[in-house]
Task: structure prediction
Amino acid sequence: MPELPEVETVARSIARLVGRRILAAELRSTRVLRGGDPDAMAARLRGRRIARIQRYGKFILVSLEGGGYLLIHLGMTGRLLLAGPAGKHTHAILTLDRGTLLYDDSRQFGCFYFSEEFPPRLRKLGPEPLEVRFEDFAAALRRRHTRIKALLLNQAFVRGIGNIYADEALFRAGIHPLAQTSRFGGARARRLFDAMVAVLSEAIAAGGSSVSDYVDARGRKGFFQFSHRVYQRTGEPCLTCGTPIRRLLVAARSSHFCPRCQKR
DNA sequence: ATCGGTACCTGCACGC
DNA sequence: TGCGTGCAGGTACCGA
Result:
């Protein structure tokens, strides 16, 4: 579910937690703790005040006063909620001096764990797509030898783009998902960069895409799904030319595109 | 060092 | 009703 715009929306919806103190942590799943010991982590979280909440691509990093971090990734089905009730797939419950924070994730592809050090995983991420300079983006693009769809999904290239926004950006740029990146000239790089910035900005403004069940921390749905032009529109007419939207697998992910508007 | 495929998990929609 | 299949916003890990 959650890509950059959804995670940004969630991060904003929990921004009010800065300054709150964690009174207790109940950690139920070891899987989302990434092998950490639940009791030890709960003990490290207890009593700490939340100093800062930042988004890194699709990760949310909660910095704690006095050191230490809470690293959160929503995976495919993760939710951070400011109110209960806890359910079958609630893996973490933080009781704060005012309020509660729940982490819920049915598929358990996400994570929610305490880290003493700044998480090394975050250092391996590429730049933020809404912050990277065009010149750097274009140069990095030409250095890679792969299919553009796979590259957009590679978090070491740019961080935060997932399947929805990769497909939507490629459609807007008129680029086929199988196009080879090493052959990108300045014009195509520019179109892709502009499309990526536009689609992510618009999606953030819309509160993200609620494709099946995504909601922010206050339970509100996004509405960017109504602006999708290709994602999950297989067989429906292209909004530009009327040609039926096609679907193919790239890097084992569904890719939706218009065979007429998007050239290789 | 990069890649592309597969595994990890649960739930849902669909056809039979 | 139930069962099998395929699909789903994610990343990590395995060989080639």
